[in-house]
Amino acid sequence: MTPLHHIGEFLRNLLLLVPLGVVRLLFLMLLVGLLVWVLRLPNSETAPEGSSKPFENLKIWAALALGIQILIYSIL
Predict the structure, then answer these.
(1) pLDDT digits (tens, 9 = 90+) for 12-62
(2) Please, what's the b/e burial string for 19-44 (b: 16 or more CB within 10 A of its CB; e: otherwise)?
(3) Domain map of the chain by residue range?
């Protein structure tokens, strides 16, 4: 085996020590953080200029998609 194989095997064994519950929580927190960021975006950046229709705001649809993903991944 080459030295890279040994390094890769060491990293693999190290990552196997991380419990799946922790990985799941970190992944969900990543999605929640992304949702908070999307919700804090100004409307001027997420909707066309001069738009008065709420369904044209992409922030609503992105938040909905992220909310569904958070729900699905928290159930599975």
Answers:
(1) 999 999 999 999 999 999 999 999 999 999 988 888 887 777 778 899 999
(2) eeeeeeeeeeeeeeeebeebeeeeee
(3) 19-75
